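If you are new to this repository, start here. Below is one unmodified record pulled from the training split, so you can see the exact layout before writing a loader.
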Amino acid sequence: MSEDAKRERSGEPEAEPTEGGEGRSEPSQPPEAQDITWSAGPYTTFSGFCMGTADVVPGVSGGTMAVALGIYYQLLAAITSANSEALTSLVRLKLRRVMSLIHWRFLTCLVLGVGLGVVVMVKIVKLPSMVLASSPNRPLVYAVFFGMVLGSAIMLGRHVEKWSSVRVVACIAGALVGFAIVNLVPVATPEHPAFIFLCGSVAICAMLLPGISGSFILLILGKYAYILGAVGTLDLMVLVPFGVGCVVGILLFSRLLKWLLSRWQHTVLAVLIGLLIGSLWRIWPYQTITEIIVREKPRVISAVPFLPTSVEPKLIVGFVLGVLFVVGIEWYAIRRKAAMSHRPGREGCA
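And here is the target side for that same chain:
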């Protein structure tokens, strides 16, 4: 039995990559997770903006952008820094202790960026309307995102230390799960605050998983247009339970995901790559779309990809731009981490 198989069966944590991993922004975890410095604030805000933009589009994951931008482990560490000790200190009004425990600079910059991304895409660019079945821009938008997701899967695959048989099977399983999820049919659901809370909890968990879009989960649950409409009109009766659900969901799920990555890092990465590959079916630019009218608005109930007889040049350009965007972000993240690692006392802060 191979060493990898023994490690998988015994539950022993996987060794960190030591060969060919120098200078990579993902997935090597920093030796000591800590909050960022303010000098990293603009990049973190930009990362949040990209994540918020991606999560507006059904089929594209903010987790994918976090991986490509090199902040995925920092994101998990920041979320899980809001632990029981921090809560106890907050109750006892030990604010200085709370600030020392929680990665508040990272979270502040990231949330600001995510919020800006959502507002800009919903209110200014009106991206949701660009991916409607009736929109002539839908194929081009999906070509760009197809390139981004495919590029992210390739980049993430480079960080798996060794593609053992266990990890190959894990990747295939992830692809099948991703394929099954993106082919679920949206259903009619209630608008009770308790259900909106549940939608927030589930959607935010999807945001942390590369390849599974929080927006698409909302679409499946029949609440995509409902929630985005509440964002556009600032309907607090909808946004408050949804926001509370997001907080509860992300605090619980992030701990589970971080624990899995700490024990079976490369196998979990293989599953995440599979999720990305499986989700490509949903964002292929050429699709035969079936819609129904729900509350006087069209809703997609099925989208079946097909191979075209000819490919439009603009879609090729969009696809290439999507791949180049991910490659450029990865390249910048690597250079940025390398530069930060040479600054005394700054390791793990970037």
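Two things worth knowing about this chain: The first helix runs from residue 3 to 10. The chain has 16 helices and two strands.
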